[in-house]
Design brief:
Layout (H helix, E strand, L loop, with lengths): L3 E4 L2 E4 L5 H16 L1 E4 L5 E5 L8 E2 L5 E6 L4 E6 L10 E2 L9 H12 L6 H4 L15 H16 L4 H11 L8 H17 L2 H18 L4 H18 L2 H19 L4 H14 L7
Parallel strand pairs: 5-8
Antiparallel strand pairs: 1-2, 3-4, 6-7
């Protein structure tokens, strides 16, 4: 088969294709653009599913529905994340992470789905939109942002280095800045690997607060954060706060996924273990 390469305009041929090859490439492209990842209870993608009705739903960076699967991926279900007016279009997010600057979201959508997003969130004036809090464009903040971006892209930072970088952002970058969020995410990863649960709890709490400030309606993004937060609080023995977080985790799962999804059943198990005074991960 002739060599192919991807570009923002789709697949480009580096040699002549037969009619059968062109058809195969076309089918492959349609699958990539229309398939839905089937997630397990931890949010890990375990398969791809193509659902004809679901393929008609458009993307929004401010979605009003969340998608989940039942019957081991045999059916796709949409659930409302907020009250939906009669005649309002049902839209979900094609992106796994919505806590990104507008330009980063547009780049991901262009590369993955070949379109420019024109949703309500992307059409707002940055100075009046929560998107404006995710990045700083002027002066010292912009310079720090560039420096942090380069450092994070290089990778390999220790927990201590990330902590120092985070401390340096105070008073310069907004707490909701996407790079501040990324630093907290890195600290959560290090803290989990090193079983430094105080660091995990502190950073996850900051990430939850940032999401609530900017995009309180992004409930799907909150689910995994509350699960990680519950684990850290359990390890720290903070039972009273753990009950509150586990209750929120369960409510988020019911809204986003329904009563019979793996994530919701996991949340129910959390609450039962807390009631029985047992560890969540014994």
């Amino acid at each position: 088969m002739a060599a192919m390469r991807a570009s923002p305009d789709g697949f480009k041929s580096e040699g002549s294709l037969t009619q059968a090859e062109e058809h195969a490439v076309g089918v492959y492209r349609r699958i990539l653009c229309n398939a839905h990842p089937v997630l397990d209870g931890t949010g890990k993608s375990v398969a791809l599913g193509v659902y004809p009705a679901g393929c008609y739903a458009n993307h929004s960076c401010d979605p009003n529905v969340a998608i989940s699967h039942v019957g081991d991926g045999r059916a796709l279900v949409m659930r409302a994340l907020r009250p939906i007016a009669q005649g309002e279009e049902l839209c979900y997010s094609y992106l796994a992470e919505l806590y990104q600057p507008r330009a980063a979201r547009h780049e991901a959508l262009q590369k993955g789905y070949y379109f420019e997003c024109e949703c309500r969130r992307c059409g707002e004036d940055l100075n009046k939109s929560p998107d404006g809090l995710l990045e700083d464009e002027f002066g010292e903040a912009a310079a720090m942002q560039t420096e942090l971006q380069e450092a994070l892209e290089a990778g390999g930072q220790s927990r201590e280095a990330l902590g120092a970088m985070l401390a340096g952002t105070q008073g310069v970058l907004h707490p909701c800045n996407s790079l501040v969020y990324s630093l907290h995410l890195g600290l959560v990863a290090h803290g989990s690997n090193e079983e430094d649960w105080e660091t995990v709890a502190t950073s996850v709490a900051a990430m939850i607060a940032a999401r609530r400030s900017c995009f309180a309606g992004d409930l799907v993004g909150m689910v995994l954060l509350h699960r990680v937060y519950a684990r850290a609080l359990d390890k720290l023995g903070q039972r009273a706060q753990l009950r509150e977080v586990a209750d929120v985790y369960h409510k988020l799962c019911v809204i986003c996924y329904g009563d019979d999804h793996d994530a919701t059943l996991d949340a129910v198990s959390f609450k039962q273990r807390i009631h029985d005074q047992r560890s969540l991960y014994e």
